[in-house]
Amino acid sequence: MKVAIVDDEALERKALRKMINDHLPDIEVVAEGANGREAIDIAKQYCPDVMLIDIKMPGLDGLQAIEAIRQDGLDLEFIIVSAFDLFDYAKQAMRFGVKEYLLKPSRKEEVISALERVSQEVAAKRQHEESSRQLQEQIRRLQTLVESEWLSVLMTEDVSADEWERWKELLPFSIASGMFLVIQFPDAGVADEWKSWLDKQLSGQAPTRYLIGRMANRRLPVLFFRSPNDGDPAWKPVIQALALDLARQFSARYGAALYIGLGSPFSRLDQLRSSYYEALSAAHYYAERQKAQVGFLPAEATRAGGEAERDKQLFEALRLGDIEQARLICLTYIEELASSHSLPAAGRKAEETFVWLGRLLSELGIRYERLASFASCRSAAELKRAALDELDRIAADLEVWRQQQAYGKLGKAKDYIDRHYAEPLTLEEVAEQAGISPYYFSKLFKEHFGITFIDYVTNVRIERAKEALAETDQSLKEICFLVGYNDPNYFSRVFKKQTGLSPSEYRKKVQAR
């Protein structure tokens, strides 16, 4: 045990030190001080277990020093050694949690007895703290094990609602929505080191709660999730930005590539498994091609051969509103599955198709969450009914989307162009404003307006330029910048291509009328 002695009388400090050294070999005097200010400094620097301290000292007295040390949150015990046997002092000392109050001149037996009692209390306190620490560590490790096991079950097994409820009793959180990413690490390296590195990065960067799963084949799954009382993050851009940053940091530190696959976000617990499989497939896809390090699985990569073509036909029939054709394609497919696969395998195959359809719907800006659990179907007939019910729901969502796209999403995009034509607009920027993926935005814009995005932006800019040329005396250079062009020569070429006249020729023509 470490002891400090603070007293303005040097002889008293010397006497106390000698008593301790001669009779208490397990106690070490680590420092001495002559006033309250030195007592505070000693407490901070040496962290003694016990401080023997006088009350009346020059400057800051002993009780003031004890109060200041307590306010700093320093954990040590005090024994007052004072010549003043006053009740007010004793009462104040008790308020500060002082263990013993000894009177000067210090009697050897009293000092030794007081130190032995406090030493026993300190030892008991340390033992209790260590037991609590070990218990907390055991609880933490057990909780981590439960969470890891729960995550494995979530990723790989079909679990009934009752089982989920039992799991909830063991978990310190609930999940309102979430999404997976799967990280594929390089061949070289130690799994524990990679996992430790990731946990350290996420602890400082993750925008929401997360759980790290078990490493397998150099792949590590991570579930990001929010509880019902948390905010609602914009899952895809937020997690994608985090994944890109992780890949950059890993490359900078270890000089190797990290491939990260992302799964779609879901707001139902029983659908998060689909997000995991999407992320797993995406990680494999990017690692195999080594063209990009982070991303969602491209739609064309999810299916192969005849499956891809059939799924494309199914989605096109749905998108065009041909529900009868879509139902026929779906029924034929389920019958093929039921005849060539076990019922659980057929259910998983059907689930893959609807996961793929859901991703295409999200690219159109349609939020779709599957209600049916194909894995729980007990017969081929039940599987057909579940698939058709889901198909009808998708068809209804697409019908609403078709009705809204002209005056809704695409109309919103058109209005945005009309307001921001003078800015350096990009297809990606306007598609984001409309809430549609750039690929489908470009396709739908051409289908609906009969003109490409670029041509429409050009038309708007040239029309505004024509108005300015006719109605103002601004210079051609000013008008060029006013309508969104940075190069006057390029502006003149585009203007002449659109109107058959150069800007100056057009101005002369309209002003001559």
UniProtKB/TrEMBL annotation:
The UniProt record lists the HTH araC/xylS-type domain at: 411-509
Q: Which residues form a coiled coil?
A: none
Which keywords accompany this UniProt record?
Answer: DNA-binding, Phosphoprotein, Transcription, Transcription regulation
Task: Write down the InterPro entries for this protein, in alphabetical order.
Answer: CdaR_GGDEF, CheY-like_superfamily, Homeodomain-like_sf, HTH_AraC, HTH_AraC-typ_CS, Sig_transdc_resp-reg_receiver, Tscrpt_reg_AraC-type_HTH
User: Do you know which PROSITE patterns this protein is assigned to?
Assistant: HTH_ARAC_FAMILY_1 (PS00041), HTH_ARAC_FAMILY_2 (PS01124), RESPONSE_REGULATORY (PS50110)
Sequence positions bearing 4-aspartylphosphate: D54
Location of the Response regulatory domain: 2-119
Protein name, UniProt field: Helix-turn-helix domain-containing protein
Q: Which organism is it from?
A: Geobacillus jurassicus
